[in-house]
From TrEMBL:
<dbReference type="InterPro" id="IPR012312">
    <property type="entry name" value="Hemerythrin-like"/>
</dbReference>
<feature type="domain" description="Hemerythrin-like">
    <location>
        <begin position="54"/>
        <end position="163"/>
    </location>
</feature>
<protein>
    <submittedName>
        <fullName>Hemerythrin HHE cation-binding protein</fullName>
    </submittedName>
</protein>
<dbReference type="Pfam" id="PF01814">
    <property type="entry name" value="Hemerythrin"/>
</dbReference>
Length: 207
């Protein structure tokens, strides 16, 4: 095996392990519920030890939680537990991401719009999570509202992983990225612990 082929193989193995570990975090909450997330967008950041790899780790956990929630029956207690974990984890993730990454990236004129778009998506997702939380989770129709949240979240993290992170990386040094991961870890723990599951039905489509 050539050096380049070996490097590629190691990278693929690292990415596969990172994805499996992230999915495992979700599965540990309800081992009996399948977590079929299928293929995920290709990203060079999965398994990266700095800020972007850490964010993708959370994204993969969230992909698994979404798949697991969708796989539950209306009266399955796991549905409520998984949904509440998803909401709290996303709240903590988004707040910490804004503090550790986007607050800095937004100050650079070259990447301001990418940062604004990401933060704007967070606000939209807050409304969709509040709408889903306000509805009867045991109702057969709840998954219809949940599907909107799921689709919007998956689109958001797709854009981050394939566009916004790539642009942000261009204006950050490796030292910046290492430091941002430390900030993210600290802030996510605090933000998730303080997260409140808001409940507010959206009277019109969330834009």
């Amino acid at each position: 095996m050539t050096g380049s082929a070996m490097a590629k193989s190691v990278n693929q193995a690292t990415q596969a392990k990172a994805k499996a570990d992230a999915v495992g975090q979700a599965r540990a909450l309800a081992p009996e519920v399948p977590a079929r997330i299928g293929s995920t967008p290709a990203t060079k950041f999965r398994g990266n030890p700095e800020i972007f790899g850490r964010l993708v780790e959370d994204h993969d956990k969230h992909r698994a939680l979404l798949a697991m929630i969708e796989a539950t029956a209306p009266n399955d207690p796991a549905r409520k537990a998984l949904f509440e974990e998803f909401v709290r984890d996303v709240h903590g993730h988004a707040a910490a991401e804004e503090q550790a990454l986007w607050s800095t990236v937004m100050r650079n004129p070259e990447t301001t719009e990418f940062a604004r778009h990401a933060v704007g998506d967070h606000h939209k997702l807050d409304k969709l999570m509040a709408d889903a939380a306000a509805r009867d989770i045991t109702s057969p129709g709840w998954l219809t509202h949940f599907a909107t949240l799921k689709d919007e979240y998956l689109e958001h993290i797709l854009e981050e992983e394939t566009e916004q992170f790539l642009e942000a990386e261009k204006v950050l040094s490796e030292a910046d990225q290492r430091y941002m991961r430390k900030v993210f870890e600290r802030r996510k723990k605090a933000e998730k612990a303080a997260a409140v599951i808001e409940k507010k039905i959206a009277l019109k489509p969330v834009a």
